[in-house]
Design goal:
The chain is mainly α. It has one domain (about 1-80). It has helices at about 1-40, 50-80. The radius of gyration is 20 Å and the shape is flat. The termini are far apart. The relative contact order is 0.09.
């Protein structure tokens, strides 16, 4: 009986933390840069929840990661 209550409380906490984590990642890290980049290239106001915004946000972070890798590999090659 008490174990069931404890398990349900932990499930609820895990679900809330998971939703907050997913919301922070999806909204702030992917949708926000994707919205601003899409707004630059599209004449009309883009849908903030649209697929194009999400794709542009993921492409933005992929470009940042690739650029960081290229810079690190060039600096690392010169330093060592």
């Amino acid at each position: 009986m008490i174990e069931d209550v404890a398990v349900n409380i932990f499930k609820l906490l895990a679900r809330v933390i998971g939703y907050l984590f997913l919301d922070i990642i999806l909204v702030f890290l992917i949708k926000t840069p994707g919205y601003f980049i899409t707004k630059i290239f599209v004449k009309r106001d883009p849908n903030p929840d649209g697929l194009v915004v999400i794709i542009m946000g993921i492409a933005f972070w992929a470009a940042i990661g690739f650029g960081g890798y290229v810079i690190y590999s060039n600096i690392g090659a010169r330093l060592f």
